[in-house]
Amino acid sequence: MSGFLAALFSALDPFCGPVGLFSLFDGDTLLACGAAGWGDEIAFGVKVTISLALATLPVGLAIGFLIALAAQSQDKLLRLAAGIYTTIFRGLPELLTLFIVYYGVQILIQSVLATFGVEERVEINAFFAGMVALAVVFSSYSSEVLLSAFRAIPRGQYEAGDALGLRRGHTMRLVVVPQLIRIALPGLTNLWLILLKDTSYVSVIGLADIVRQTGIAARVSKEAFFFYFVACLLYLVLAMLSSFGLGFVERWAKRSEARR
């Protein structure tokens, strides 16, 4: 069964499958799949880029939602902490945030181990470090979008939930969050496209994304312009597919509004 599934996934591969994007090129071209070209390597880079962006999105949204809740809390300390968080991570360049997470966490773990007499070099996973760094940056921006959406929802919505006997958590889930998604979706769509491009930073810590794979191909083949142009096309295709998909989601989210 495992062999059948492997053959099925190989056949459905959108890049190097029988009808894949890079399979359309002849065996003697630079983008051909197999040993003759760089199609396999670049296809793997595209998969890593998409996987990283998709893994970062829910984490960043969850953190951003909590930061937005803290920013509108009646507790001054929570509001202050949320303000400090968003100020720091919106002010730092994404590349520096990535370095801090990737190298800083390693140093922290090694320091903790050293206090227990364990002298061992620790290296964290590049995919995990990239996901954490990008999620932190994404959450700092998404929290502001979500906070604006929260403020656009009338306080009467909460009072109506209380009048119906709903707990505040039920009011949030059944009344507020559906409206929140509809209001915040355009801003979150822009942040997703930015996140998709920001995944290119992880190439500096060795993760095999689109930029790293095309960069290796460019250095080895001496065809820098060609491969970086391919990278540009791939990012543009991903952005257009994302815009199409998110446009459909936005129309679906506003379907009740259109009926009125």
UniProtKB/TrEMBL annotation:
Q: What are the annotated GO cellular component locations?
A: ATP-binding cassette (ABC) transporter complex
Q: Does the keyword Transmembrane helix apply?
A: yes
Entry's Gene Ontology molecular function annotations: transmembrane transporter activity
Keyword Repeat in the entry? The reply is no
Q: Which UniProt keywords apply?
A: Cell inner membrane, Cell membrane, Membrane, Transmembrane, Transmembrane helix, Transport
- First-listed, main subcellular location of the protein, grouped into a coarse class: membrane
Concerning InterPro entries, the annotation shows: AA_ABC_transptr_permease_3TM, ABC_transp_permease_HisMQ, MetI-like, MetI-like_sf
The record's comment on protein family reads: Belongs to the binding-protein-dependent transport system permease family. HisMQ subfamily.
Name under which the protein is recorded: ABC transporter permease
